[in-house]
Automatic annotation (TrEMBL):
Belongs to the HscB family. GO terms for biological process: [2Fe-2S] cluster assembly; protein complex oligomerization. CDD domains: DnaJ. Signal peptide: none annotated. This is J domain-containing protein. GO terms for cellular component: mitochondrion. InterPro entries: DnaJ_domain, HscB, HscB_C_sf, HscB_oligo_C, J_dom_sf.
Amino acid sequence: MSLVKQILKIVTTNHKYNTYHTLNKSHTKLTRLSQNYISQRFNPNVCWKCGLERKNLLSVFCSECYVIQNPQETENYFRLLNLDEKFDIDTKELRNKYRALQSHLHPDKFTNKSKEEQSISANYSSLVNKAYSNLQVPLKRAEHLLQLKGDKLGEEQTLDDPEFLMEMMELNEELDNISDIEELKKFNIKNKNQLEIIAKSIDECFRKNDLKQAKAFVIKMKYYSSLGNRINGLLREKGVVD
Ligand SMILES: [Zn+2]
């Protein structure tokens, strides 16, 4: 083999090797990227960025690379906020846990981060807001709990209790006839007391896992809540802020 041919052979072999090496490297990179993508989409148990198993699934950040993680829980608002799954929650604890979570997710903390991290934190934060606003309101909390237990309240849910429905009609009529502000305030207190009594019954039913009764009370709560909304509207009209 002539020297020129030998040199040419070395050059082409090297070239082939380099091309192969580059391709191989980018293939490895692609595989790693797709693995990350798959783990991010389908496996909340591992970090989407570094692929490490997440030891504490409630933790917002990966313990290894400190990158923000997708929420492990998206359906159960209690678990999302690390609260016991029950109706009678400590609202102070709810508020504290909500604030603590949101402080980690504040957009200011992600201004210098990647688009992906910004997007995860924004989605996480809006989910936490949604969870908070649902758990904060007793009626919504009860409905969420019912849904989690597999007993969703339909839109057109009514109660097969003519006596109760008659009572609600009368209360609404009574409200129509109130013009005195002090009387309106008294009516409001009465309604709030009634809502508290119903809330206690709902809690008892959930504790006994009596979903049928819980549902009936949740429907009653819906009626009293809408009466409450009417009262609040009238109070605001008269300049009283609840
Ligand atoms: Zn990580």
